[in-house]
Write a structure and sequence with these properties.
This protein is mainly alpha-helical. The chain has helices at about 1-35, 45-55, 55-65, 75-80, 90-115, 125-150. The radius of gyration is 21 Å and the shape is elongated.
Length: about 160
């Protein structure tokens, strides 16, 4: 359940946390640098623009989920059920998960084949795809943050 909640909710929120905290840090760095007499290039707007462009789809998805402009997905329904205060029968949860898995796997396999990638044949393989996406996303974020910091203090152009 924690993995499901993290993947659906927290990762979307992390985008805004990284964006907002980095922008605030870049503003702070600019003020401190100027107060210390260091030549500073404020990269706040440049970073924010690059971040929004890089993560446009994910930011839009977060907005959609937060404001519920679309009906809940199977995943969000499972999460809602698993958060109930009264216990749900284990067989009901398993049946719902299997139905979701049976609907999702053929689509994932078809898309993977079309992209020339090995199709996932198990839940673990689907999990691995999700994890690889999260790692790639984290690397992109760190790269954008590093470029903004180095450009602010004049070590990168």
């Amino acid at each position: 359940m924690a993995w499901q909640i993290h993947s659906q909710s927290l990762r979307s929120g992390e985008l805004y946390i990284v964006q907002d905290r980095t922008c605030e840090f870049l503003k702070f760095l600019s003020h401190v640098g100027r107060d210390c007499g260091i030549t500073i290039s404020d990269q706040t707007k440049t970073f924010e623009k690059a971040f929004k462009k890089t993560f446009e789809r994910r930011l839009r998805e977060r907005h959609r989920v937060v404001h519920a402009h679309e009906r809940p997905s199977w995943e969000s329904r499972i999460i809602s059920l698993s958060g109930q205060t009264s216990p749900l029968p284990e067989d009901a949860i398993k049946a719902l998960l299997m139905e979701t898995f049976e609907k999702t796997m053929p689509t994932l396999q078809r898309v993977s084949s079309q992209l020339g990638k090995e199709p996932p044949m198990s839940v673990a393989a689907v999990e691995k795809i999700h994890e690889e996406g999260a790692v790639k996303e984290a690397r992109l974020m760190l790269d954008l943050v590093a470029k903004a910091l180095l450009s602010t203090i004049g070590l990168m152009k």
